[in-house]
Amino acid sequence: MKISVVTLSFNQAPFLACALDSVLGQDHPDIEYIVVDPGSTDGSREILARYASRLSALILEPDAGPGDGLNRGFARATGEILGYLNADDAYLPGALSEAAAVFARPDRPNAPRPDVVCGHGLIVDGEGRVVRRMRSAPWSLRRFAYGASVQMQQSTFFRADAFARTPGFNNANRTCWDAELLMELARTGSRFRIVDRYWSLFRIYEGSISGSGRLNARYGEDLARMFRTVMGRPWSATDTVIARALRLARWAADPAGLAVRLHDQFSGPPAALRALAAKAL
Fold first, then answer.
1. Tell me: the pLDDT tens digits for 153-196?
2. Is 65 within 8 Å of 36 (Cβ atoms)?
3. Contact (Cβ atoms closer than 8 angstroms) between residue 151 and residue 250
4. Is the model's pTM score more than 0.85?
5. What's the Cα-to-Cα distance from 243 to each of 227, 235, 247, rounded to whole Å?
6. Residue 130 near residue 268 (C-beta atoms within 8 A)
7. Topology (CATH level 3) of domain 3-280
8. Closest-CA residue to 127 (of 88, 177, 73)
9. pLDDT 10s digits, 129-159
10. What is the 3-state secondary structure (H, E, C) of the chain?
11. Which residues contact 255 (CB under 8 A, 6 or more apart)?
12. In angstroms, what CA-CA distances link 259 with 135, 254, 269?
């Protein structure tokens, strides 16, 4: 089962080699690795030149933003399973072989095949210190619309035929294009499966979109637009109450996730996971 991975690289040279190595060092036997760099000026191009012979494709064309770059990368992909990894994140060892195994066999007899598989991950800071675990939560479009269904993008994989049914990444979305793709996958009938395994590192630091907060206003606009897409109407005062209730219900639906959150808050992530992260870094 071939897995195609796309990395979008743009001015993240301090972390790029780690991301590349985390893909190229996977033990899955059939990986197609495509890297897109629309014009980095911080030394990333020089790093990519050193790795070029080990990549399946290196796209060095200007694009119209992250969504456009990812669409260009996936247009070159030939794998049955697709995933994408930001240039400042990383896969944990064994992630791709474990994901492939989930797609290859049902979790119970006669169960329908999953189209989207989501694992968990670890949040790390700019220096690579593990901050806490992040778990993908039970999925539904309604939970998603209310912000009560969180998926670890770096630990998410989907079938190529499911991706082909969607419009692809929305380039107009500059804050949460990953979440919007999940919405489109669900709206076009994809079946989701959450897997209780840790597959990736998500780096949050001052210079990242998630860490800096510099696009918070635009992020709110994107969330409001996606809510209208799913629910067919704008957000109301009643929806604020519903959102709070669903976010509380999320922990009831995933008590293990609540236990993990409390454990990490007071004791930090388990030593075994910190050691696994160290191998990826």
1. 999 999 999 999 999 999 999 999 999 999 999 999 999 999 99
2. no
3. no
4. yes
5. 11, 10, 6
6. yes
7. Spore Coat Polysaccharide Biosynthesis Protein SpsA; Chain A (3.90.550)
8. 88
9. 999 999 998 889 999 999 998 899 999 999 9
10. CCEEEEEECCCCHHHHHHHHHHHHCCCCCCEEEEEECCCCCCCHHHHHHHHHHHCCEEECCCCCCHHHHHHHHHHCCCCCEEEECCCCCEECCCHHHHHHHHHHCCCCCCCCCCCEEEEEEEEECCCCCEEEEECCCCCCHHHHHCCCCCCCHHHEEEEHHHHHCCCCCCCCCCCCHHHHHHHHHHHCCCCEEEEEEEEEEEECCCCCHHHHCCCHHHHHHHHHHHHHHHHCCCCCHHHHHHHHHHHHHHHHHCHHHHHHHHHHHHHCCCHHHHHHHHHHC
11. none
12. 11, 9, 12
Q: Tell me which residue has tokens 């419009």.
A: 167
Rounded CA-CA distance 88/259 in Å is: 28
Q: Could you state, in order of their start, the residue ranges of all structural domains in the chain? A: 3-280
How many other CB atoms are found less than 10 A from the CB of residue 45?
16
Q: For residue 208, count other CB atoms closer than 10 A to its CB.
A: 18
Cα separation, 10 vs 39, in Å, equals: 7
Q: Which two three-digit tokens encode residue 51?
A: 């790795």
In one-letter notation, the amino acid at residue 149 is S
- Written as six digits, the tokens of 205 are 């630091």
Q: Match 């949040």 to its residue by tokens.
A: 123
Contact between 120 and 198 (Cβ < 8 Å): yes
Tokens 């494709």 sit at which residue? 57
Residue bearing tokens 């293990």: 256
How far apart CA 71 and CA 55 sit, in angstroms, is 18
